[in-house]
Amino acid sequence: MTRTRMTASERSTEVLAAATSAFAETGYAATKTDDIARRAGVSQPYVIRLFGTKQQLFLAVLDQVCGRIEELFRAGATTAPPDASPKDRLDCLGSYFGEHFLTDRDLPRVFLQGIAAASEPAIGANIRDHFGQLFNLAKELTGASVSEVRRFFGTGMLLIDLTALGVSDLACEGNPSWATEILTNLSEEGI
């Protein structure tokens, strides 16, 4: 059996995937580059050679996660009819985001880990920049007012929290009653 060598780009992609999973599980501070290397099947020095520091690797993961949110917002915007109101456009963004981001186990948790690690200057600057860009993108794509987009983001953050808590599926019979109540009211509002 012949083994094909991975390119540096392919290996980098594997390390990013392993880092995403590790940071989602244990956060920025508690995650060790040794653990990421093991998950990716490479050496710890190789991880450092690819990304420099653990912080640079975490920033690359955050860039990837926030880039995914941007992709989903742009794709969700295309699902709205041309004559849709700003609220209907936001609903299309939200639905698409829910179907493609909130169903991923790691991405919402990494996003929250980025917010949790915002006291680190470089991480805080990164996540604030991404958050602002996503807020402005939602306004641009939908034509919604600041207050409408603020409400949209508030609801989105609530759903990210519920996803991270493992109680975001309305069909799950094991949800606590408060989670079911929140999710029922959201679905009744069309969110």
Kindly list the characteristics that best describe this protein.
globular; 74% helix; single chain; Tetracycline Repressor, domain 2; mainly alpha; 191 residues
Describe this structure in words.
The protein is mainly α and 191 residues long. The chain has a domain at 59-188: Tetracycline Repressor, domain 2 (Orthogonal Bundle), CATH 1.10.357. Helix content is 74%, strand content 0%. The protein has helices at residues 8-30, 33-40, 44-51, 54-77, 86-100, 107-116, 121-142, 146-165, 177-188. Helix 4 packs across helix 5, helix 4 (54-77) packs across helix 6 and helix 4 (54-77) packs parallel to helix 7. The chain is globular and about 50 Å long.
Strand-and-helix sequence, N→C?
Answer: HHHHHHHHH
Report the average pLDDT across residues.
91
Q: Quote the CATH topology of the domain at 59-188.
A: Tetracycline Repressor, domain 2
Give the helix tally.
9
Taking the sheet with the most strands, its summary is:
none
Q: How many extended strands?
A: 0
List the helices and strands and how they pair.
Blueprint: H1 8-30, H2 33-40, H3 44-51, H4 54-77, H5 86-100, H6 107-116, H7 121-142, H8 146-165, H9 177-188
Helix pairs in contact: 1-2, 1-4, 1-6, 2-3, 4-5, 4-6, 4-7, 5-8
Short synopsis of the structure:
By secondary structure, the chain is mainly alpha-helical. The protein contains nine helices and no strands.
